[in-house]
Amino acid sequence: MSDDGHVNENTSTSGLPATQGDSGEPIARRRGMFGANNGGDTSGYGGLDRTVRMPGASQRPYGGYFDEVADELEGALEEQGVDPAEAVERTVVDRDEVTFHIAREHLPVVCRTLRDDPALRFEMCTGVSAVHNPSDAGRELHAVYHLRSLTHGRLIRLEVSVPDSDPHLPSVVETYPTNDWHEREAYDFFGLIFDGHPALTRIMMPDDWQGFPQRKDYPLGGIPVEYKGAQIPAPDQRRSYS
Fold first, then answer.
1. Can you tell me the distance from the alpha carbon of 29 to that of 51, in angstroms, rounded to the nearest whole number?
2. Contact indicator for 100, 147 with CB cutoff of 8 Å
3. What's the pLDDT band for 77 if we cut at 50, 70, 90?
4. How far apart are the C-alpha atoms of 62 and 58, rounded to whole Å?
5. 3-state DSSP call for residue 193?
6. Chain-centre distance of CA 182, in angstroms?
7. Which CATH superfamily is domain 65-195 in?
8. Position 236 pLDDT exceeds 80
9. How confident is the model over 161-196, as pLDDT tens digits?
10. Which of 147, 161, 179, 177 is nearest to 102 (CA)?
């Protein structure tokens, strides 16, 4: 920087931290504190406006043991006649964690390979959780698997994206039996349909319940409460402060 406060063009910026929120893949704009869009903003922060971004694909080297896991997985898939580029859509390293985004049709073979290959040995899947991003067109629903290798002391994540219009993906209960109840819960709350599951039924909501209550476009609802003669409406029906 010169004496007059201007930045010189030949000054190196390689040592400066990246600007927060300027990278990745934008999927939505969020206004207000909680991003409510089916009612008034009752938080009082209606002026907040930011872009929601997902981390983009990472380039090698990934760092740590991530490169070794990626290499071993690619080699093991090739040995089975599976094109790694088709099975693994992209690899994301963010906040010192690695996520392999898997094409849904290849999920069973990827899971079996991760479990059985001696160099990988991810014997435990601690469950599958779900994410709903209504503005992520064509891949609104995400299933996220957390895998642990007890043999090698490693953690990785798998993520599978499917469109809201076709929420089907293969069950991995045959490979990881403990996912039985986790897949049922993801179906019950988010509407993901795990093909091949031994008994895909609701486990929390009544059997005749309409809709999937943890999707972001599900109505907030609420229970009318009387307080000294006044009625407290549901959250999405309260007075707007924006």
1. 4
2. no
3. very high
4. 7
5. strand
6. 15
7. NADH:ubiquinone oxidoreductase Nqo5 subunit (3.30.460.80)
8. no
9. 999 999 999 999 999 999 999 999 999 999 999 999
10. 161
Parallel/antiparallel/unpaired status of strands 141-149 and 154-162: antiparallel
The long-range contacts involving 190-195, CB below 8 angstroms and separated by at least 24 positions, are 190/130, 190/132, 190/141, 190/214, 190/215, 191/141, 191/167, 191/215, 192/130, 192/141, 192/143, 192/162, 192/167, 193/167, 193/168, 193/169, 194/169, 194/170, 195/168, 195/169, 195/170, 195/171
Place of tokens 């707007």: 240
Q: What is the mean pLDDT of residues 6-10?
A: 45
Residues with Cβ within 8 Å of 58's Cβ and at least 6 positions away in sequence, in order, are 91, 92, 93, 94
Does the pLDDT at position 9 exceed 80? no
> What CA–CA distances, in Å, run from 9 to 1, 6, 12, 13, 170?
9, 9, 8, 10, 53
What is the C-alpha separation between 88 and 159, in angstroms, rounded?
10
% helix, strand, coil for the chain, step of 5 = 20, 25, 55
Give the mean pLDDT of 201-224. Answer: 85
Strand partners, 25: 54
pTM: 0.79
Phi, psi of 105 (to 5 degrees): -70, -20
Phi, psi values for residue 185, rounded to 5°? -65, -40
Cα(213)–Cα(199) distance, integer angstroms:
20
Residue 35's CB: how many other CB atoms inside 10 A?
16
Q: What would the two tokens of residue 144 be? A: 């996220």
CA dihedral 179, 184, 186, 191 (to 10 degrees): 140
Contact of 237 with 39, CB cutoff 8 Å? yes
